Amino acid sequence: xxxxxxxxxxxxxxxxxxxxxxxxxxxxxxxxxxxxxxxxxxxxxxxxxxxxxxxxxxxxxxxxxxxxxxxxxxxxxxxxxxxxxxxxxxxxxxxxxxxxxxxxxxxxxxxxxxxxxxxxxxxxxxxxxxxxxxxxxxxxxxxxxxxxxxxxxxxxxxxxxxxxxxxxxxxxxxxxxxxxxxxxxxxxxxxxxxxxxxxxxxxxxxxxxxxxxxxxxxxxxxxxxxxxxxxxxxxxxxxxxxxxxxxxxxxxxxxxxxxxxxxxxxxxxxxxxxxxxxxxxxxxxx
Length: 286
Description:
Layout: E1 2-12, E2 15-25, E3 30-34, H1 41-49, E4 56-61, E5 64-68, E6 73-74, E7 82-85, H2 97-105, H3 111-119, H4 135-147, E8 153-157, H5 165-181, E9 185-189, H6 193-199, E10 202-207, E11 210-215, H7 217-223, E12 231-241, E13 247-253, E14 256-262, H8 264-272, E15 277-281
Parallel strand pairs: 3-9, 3-10, 7-8, 8-9
Antiparallel strand pairs: 1-2, 1-4, 4-5, 5-6, 10-11, 12-13, 12-15, 13-14
């Protein structure tokens, strides 16, 4: 669906570098961009959306050229079939939930508004203003507003990072359901490993503007991560029994899987709250 080749000079925490990437995204894929802050992830989303121009390169979506620096082509953001959900929600504060969706749809009384209000379970809140909503409710409004345009491409810039653990998991499920039901092609920026595991078909790891890894999250987990040290924060992925009566707890943390021996007496308690965050302290690098 997407053929992307771009270069843009940036300045990150370690100084100047070039964001230089070349990859494709098939239709229907859920792609996650991962990397430290300042690696170029958000800039890449903004270039796809037409909110920033690269120094060089081209973007083609389903045979349509959205941007080609050499040919002087740059389709405006309004004419690109993109839904963009920001971390800060970016809702219109003086508009109700319904009016935010109607504005995105382009007209009042659009029948799609009722459809999307129902889809994200906001029917009872449609006449309320954003300031009276919780963070999770605002994010669902932002998601519905992006989707009502029926975009070819959904771009998500860490939209769930400010939410608590329970709401984050709920909206991850919502995202996955909508991605599948609407046949979306989705690109998500995320630092949260459990989110990546649950959502991503494919993971691109950006390091200093270059693609350091391109594959499934499982491939990266099995390979480990050479820059991690100290405590790992993650979620229980599996508890496996052992012949000696003990168990091994597998924790997905910071883009790697860590196995931890368990005494039998701890297994029941951990299994009962396996979706809760846990911390594992390592003495050495993996």
